[in-house]
Amino acid sequence: MKQLLLSPFGRDHTVTSLFLYISRSALTSLAILCRWAGVRGTIPQPVVVTTVFAMLVSSQRGQRMASVTLTVLALRLLGEFIHGSLNGNEFWDDEYDFKDGDWKDNKIR
Question: Looking at residue 93, what DSSP letter applies?
Fold first, then answer.
């Protein structure tokens, strides 16, 4: 909070900078959840994001978080099933490379 008050916006725009910080954090969290639910690209990310956003908008007020959580878990289960059906037990030990923006290959070189 101290850094927020000392931001370049100054004390006059504290609410605006706080709103921007919360918005960025929420969008970053949603992006990470959608990437996780896509299971290494098995389900395309636009499909995952559209489905999660549709559930977020169409759910009732008291049940939005539960609906989004169940949707993300259902997409993850579907992605795991498709990935397992296509690849069997292979390609489960790969990791995401943040420098290249793609999944690392764990092949013997």
Answer: S
